[in-house]
Amino acid sequence: MNTARTLQRSAPATGGARARAGFTLIELLIVLGIIAMIAAVSLPVVLRGFSKSGMRLAVGQVVDACVTARRTAVLTGTPTAVRIVPFERRFDVTSAGGMVGDAGQVGGHRPVPDGDEPPAPMTGGGAFSAQLPESVKIEFLGVNLVPDQQNDEEVYCVFYPNGTSDEMAILLHSDEGDLRKLLLDPVAGVIEVEIIR
Predict the structure, then answer these.
(1) What pTM does this model have?
(2) Are 187 and 64 spatial neighbours (Cβ–Cβ below 8 Å)?
(3) CATH assignment of 54-195, given 3.90.550.10, 3.55.40.10, 3.10.129.10, 1.20.1250.20?
């Protein structure tokens, strides 16, 4: 008889335990409602992180232009320039062979002599051209300590085959109030980005 009692106690109950193992419909709806509220609150933050804002895109384009020009100058052995058209907010990589004189580094404002055409953007595998988003403006632009005060001229920043470059400073301002300072180190030919706000 003791054996029968032991078996009865250890045998699982058929009705009560099975009903407690699952979730009720109300419990599932509550959990789904909580998940939906968390997703609704966090989804805009996640999407904003994945998509590039106007300022992030603009900074990336300026950096890409400088990296492309430096790489092209080093690999081809010819001076290469980043042509900046401030009023259009455009950055192009161009050949700088005819712009570099005997004195070496002559970046900055380069008026085109009468009858000459300005250097055209490069074509082929090393070509680069970008236009900053509408929401980002060039607040300040200076090459070789010469500020662009008229903001309507083309400005050139030359990269040389030895990896050096002209000195350049750019201040970008977005409609959202973001402010970024980009400084090009002339010795290393590398651009640094400083977040001001």
Answers:
(1) 0.64
(2) no
(3) 3.55.40.10
